[in-house]
Design a protein that fits this description.
By secondary structure, this protein is mostly helical. The protein has one domain (13-97): Orthogonal Bundle (DNA Binding (I), subunit A), CATH 1.10.30. It contains five helices and two strands. The protein has a two-stranded antiparallel sheet with strand order 1-2. Helix 2 packs antiparallel against helix 5. It is globular.
Length: 113
């Protein structure tokens, strides 16, 4: 088995510097805020409807979408976030959550159908 580090060089100080650099902030697909420690990879078009693409979201934003839309409605909206934001409940939520911390969580109301 080979050595990970050379005997004659320090243990990768340049590698450690790259690890300490702050990572680029990932932006939530729905609300546009930076994500916190937890990132949910959401399928805008549900997997059951043939969706393959994923987008980063806050868990609370994903819960809001699933509480306000059926899979068929999400399939029709596709990757167009503006269509989802046209819903008054979602727009009200996004305006409310805009002032919250990226790691903010709360209970979301049940599906409203």
């Amino acid at each position: 088995m080979g050595r990970k580090h050379s005997r004659h060089e320090p243990y990768g100080d340049e590698d450690r510097a790259a690890e300490d650099a702050p990572a680029a902030a990932t932006i939530c697909w729905l609300c546009g805020r930076p994500t916190g420690k937890t990132i949910v990879w959401h399928h805008p078009v549900p997997k059951s409807r043939g969706g393959r693409d994923v987008v980063p979201m806050h868990a609370i934003c994903q819960q809001t979408l699933t509480a306000n839309f059926t899979n068929a409605e999400l399939q029709r909206a596709g990757m167009d976030v503006e269509t989802l934001l046209a819903n008054p409940n979602v727009r009200k939520f996004v305006d409310w959550v805009a002032k919250k911390d990226p790691d903010f969580t709360a209970t979301i109301a049940k599906k409203q159908r």
